[in-house]
Design goal:
The chain is of the alpha/beta class. The protein is about 25% helix and about 20% strand. The chain has a five-stranded mixed beta sheet, with helices on both faces. A three-stranded antiparallel beta sheet has the order 3-4-7, with no helix packed on it. The protein has a two-stranded antiparallel ribbon with strand order 1-2. The relative contact order is 0.12. The chain binds zinc ion.
């Protein structure tokens, strides 16, 4: 029996959620033959769903992954194992050639809290860190891609946005080289805008689905920092912003908690959600309660985008 680990990871923490997936059988690779031979001595489900004990040998065609060493556990290895053997150990597995990886539906923006793009690239390449992102953007505007957009990076970790609790599976992670207490240079933001434009048109990502790590994991993550120009992004169609010149009091029926929840915030801890909202949209006041002004901002966003 082989245990494969599927992990969900934070961008700056080594904590991980691990799900054990039980692979179906012992895999033996025949170096000079045309196929991988799998010996199965497990019960399998017959047509009438009755489990029957049966020993059989199944030949599965070569895959591009077959020469990967079994002792090395990497995401590529895990995909190769699943591709060759399937997940359901009780069912026959005959892989089809017709499939896609899943399209990204969100973009999540981070700052690295590090001092150089080289340091971040090294962090994402070290085995023990268990963190990664699809793109890293340097202070000078250099864009480095580290994963294909369809692959699942480990950048979001635990959190909730709307009903999504596994953001790694549906998002592209972009890390901006920034120590967390400095402005983001124009060169870097311009490079980000070009990248976001490509991603938005390529995957048809809605404007509201460009979010920050702090939106998804309020209280645990605060990136990107209050220096990040969300307003500039929103003007170009990435994320949302309000019109400070036309704020109006909401009607008495307006429920600010519902509005936060509709935007995406996890309101199970309302104070944490409100603080995260204020840190992004108000900035000068990051207390944990909405003022009448904050509620007008929230109402404006709600009215415009939801
Ligand atoms: Zn982050």
């Amino acid at each position: 029996m082989i245990l494969l680990a599927a992990t969900t990871q934070s961008c700056s923490s080594s904590k991980k959620n691990t799900k054990a997936i039980v692979a179906p059988a012992v895999v033996k690779t025949a170096p000079s033959s045309e196929s991988i031979v799998i010996d199965i001595e497990e019960p399998r489900v017959a047509e009438n769903n009755t489990a029957v004990a049966q020993s059989q040998t199944t030949a599965i065609p070569n895959t591009p992954f077959e020469n990967i060493q079994p002792s090395i556990s990497t995401p590529e290895r895990e995909v190769a194992e699943l591709h060759a053997t399937g997940i359901q150990r009780n069912y026959d597995f005959a892989p089809t050639i017709h499939y896609d990886l899943r399209k990204p539906q969100f973009v999540m923006i981070h700052h690295t809290s590090q001092n150089s793009i080289a340091q971040t690239i090294r962090t994402f390449q070290l085995a023990h860190t268990q963190v990664s992102s699809h793109y890293v953007i340097g202070r000078d505007g250099q864009v480095v891609q580290m994963l294909n957009d369809y692959q699942r990076a480990w950048h979001a970790g635990a959190g909730k946005w709307g009903n999504i609790t596994d953001m790694n599976s549906v998002s592209i992670g972009i890390e901006l080289d920034n120590n967390g207490s400095e402005p983001f240079p124009d060169l870097q933001i311009n490079a980000l805008l070009i990248l976001l434009n490509n991603l938005k048109s390529k995957y048809r990502i809605p404007q509201t689905n460009f979010i920050g790590h702090s939106d998804y994991a309020p209280g645990r993550k605060d990136d990107p920092s209050t220096y990040f120009p969300w307003e500039t992004l929103a003007e170009r169609g990435f994320g949302i912003w309000y019109n400070a010149n036309y704020l109006a009091p909401p009607p008495p029926t307006f429920n600010s908690t519902d509005a936060l929840r509709i935007i995406g915030y996890d309101t199970s801890n309302l104070r944490t959600a409100e603080r995260s909202f204020k840190k992004k949209y108000i900035r000068t006041d990051v207390s944990s309660e909405l003022t009448p002004y904050d509620i007008m901002v929230l109402y404006d966003l709600y009215r415009k985008f939801y």
